[in-house]
Amino acid sequence: MSDPPIQAWIDAHRPRLFAELCDYLAIPSVSALGQGIEAASDWVERRLTALGAQVRRFEPPGGNPILYAELGPAEADRALLIYNHYDVQPVDPLALWTQPPFEPTQREGRLYARGTADNKANFLSRVQAVEAWQALRGPLPLRIRWIVEGEEETGSRSLPGFCAAEGWRWADSAGCLWEAGYKDEHERMTLYSGLKGLAAFELVARTAEVDKHSSMATLLPNAGWRLTWALASLKDPDERILIEGLMDHVRAPGPAELRALAAIPFDDAAFRASHGQSTLLTGVRGAEALKRHLYQPTCTICGVTCGYQDPGMKTVLPHMALAKLDFRLVPDLEPELVGRLLRAHLDARGFGDIELRPLAGEHPAPGHPESAVVRAAVEAVAAVSGVEPVLWPHMGATGPMHPVTSAFGIPAVGFGTGYWDSRNHAPDEHIRLADYWEGIAVAAEFFARFAAAPLA
What we know:
The chain is an alpha/beta fold. It has 13 helices and 20 strands. It has two domains: 4-194 and 365-452, Aminopeptidase (3-Layer(aba) Sandwich), CATH 3.40.630.10; 198-250 and 296-362, 2-Layer Sandwich (Alpha-Beta Plaits), CATH 3.30.70.360.
């Protein structure tokens, strides 16, 4: 059960804590559009300063502000790094929202707004946990270091350079609390200790300067078909990636990861139901489905643009076609390596004319499921919620964990205030308020347990 004084403090301050969360959520900080960035970064800076933190603001050239903060006893023998981001996804398609996305709306115990689950509620629950601790117990039991950036939803372009230049400030941290986590379909908090990487590209086929009349298809090339044939060479109907050499670089999970994998009570029937599917790809089930999800790379067509797209018919021979691809990467696949292998694959099949444009890259971050920071998180969640959490060695999703933690050998763990149907990146994103109040208590309990945990 939650610490009674902490829980009493949360209950007594709920109206103010809720109003503060709504104030933050009302800022439309969409990094893809360059919208609300200054307002959101200023809000975070003021909030951390009010908490008593020493805040440094970094303005990367051409990028969004990165905030680095420290609070807690300078003489503490242990430091915890926390990573969050203040930017959010675009709201499209706007017509599918049941309320304006930046007007936080409460109904039936849920709070709806863009950025609730990803990532503003997670950030603020941790801030409010520190506030509760200081009000009830005085100084923190450890040093807390915070990185809050504004480009996570667009690939964290400025973060690697920032980490390379400023990482000495947090390199000796004993662990990192990552941005997010969620409750699964069985109301178990899902923790994770690593992330897949990402390599994203545009493929462009261009066969002429302008579209032609479609009657010319007897004699002139069609950019749409050209791109379709190139895309079809990347995977087969059995979901196997066909890029030469790519699978040779996939590292098998180690013993600790396999132990963590075996302990996950993965319910593929519930997973299929929650996603509206009767079967999973290739019919994979159970433990094999989970292993594939976590330890296999992906090759995904995220979007295709070609020719006439408006209502009705226009008989043209498209002169240009564009596809967006992403690859989710496992160790030892790196974005630059995938780019080289993809280029070589296209060239070897006669698609040297297809332009390959890198869009984004994130290195994978292997998990450390048996580290002290993970153990402290597991214990804190179980103590507060009364439900044993599920530990995933790493997520199937991606974030900038590699430059922030892996590059310095810092183990990480993520937990948060969302749940399986929070609709991250989709219309009507939301959290359940009961999970938010619990998240504050979990964070406070985590601080205590990590401060006392043996590191060996």
